[in-house]
Amino acid sequence: MDAADWDRKYEGRELVYGEAPNATLVEVATTLKRGRALDLASGQGRNAIWLATRGWTVDAVDFSSTALDRASRVAASAPRSVRERLTWVHADVTQLSTEPNYDLVLMLYLHLPPEARRTAVSAAISALKPDGILMILGHHTDNIETGTGGPQESEILYTPEDLTADVDSRLTIVTAENRYRDVSEGTAVDALLLASRSPLGSTADRG
């Protein structure tokens, strides 16, 4: 799907994926020291807004202007202190160039052909501070056969092993595993990767 396709999808419903943040993100972020986060393919902003309410400063990037408009409207009801920690960026994540300013970089349910995915992963790694953390989560290749929901094009799905290969030796792999989510139609299968330049889980000022 290109940007126009996503614009049409987001125009059709007020909040396509709801307001609640991703449960795995919540699990991970609450163990981390608050800092600056980059949310790649942020959609309508549910994860970025949640992080901002927890004290993170967040740059949220998406190539759908409709999604970002919706995200901004949802965030408008948040306290001023939360809104001031949010920046909405209209850009293609495969063409993004940033300085290494981020403590946490997210790629949640960003599904691209392998070459484009590797480009996005490289951009994500380049955005990390020396002690930054990369979190990638998305629909597992096995989800087509053994799970439910999600894209049905195997080319854009991945396994933890695929993500590990994408990162290569540039980061230390902390977690690379399958995750299972209960959804209304059954159980969905996800792939999760956490990688870092330093040990995870600072106990100070947790998010």
Gist of the model:
The protein has 207 residues and is of the alpha/beta class. It has two domains: 1-6 and 23-130, Vaccinia Virus protein VP39 (Rossmann fold); 142-191, no CATH class. It has eight helices and seven strands; from the N terminus they run H-H-E-H-E-H-H-E-E-H-E-H-H-E-E.
Number of domains: 2
- Portion of residues within helices: 25-40%
Sequence stretches where pLDDT stays below 50 over 5 or more residues: none
| Strand neighbour order, sheet with most strands | 3-2-1-4-5-7-6
Shape: globular
Please give the radius of gyration in angstroms.
Answer: 16 Å
CATH topology heading of the largest domain: Rossmann fold
Summed over residues and divided by their number, the pLDDT gives a mean of: 89
- By DSSP (H or I, 4+ residues per run), the number of helices equals 8
How much of the sequence is in beta strands?
Answer: 25-35%
What's the total count of β strands? 7
Kindly, what is the distance between the CA atoms of the first and last residues, rounded to a whole number of angstroms?
Answer: 33 Å
Specify the CATH architecture of the largest domain: 3-Layer(aba) Sandwich
Q: List the secondary-structure elements in sequence, H or E.
A: HHEHEHHEEHEHHEE
Note the topology.
Blueprint: H1 3-12, H2 23-29, E1 36-40, H3 46-53, E2 57-62, H4 65-75, H5 80-83, E3 86-90, E4 102-108, H6 114-126, E5 128-139, H7 143-146, H8 160-167, E6 172-183, E7 186-196
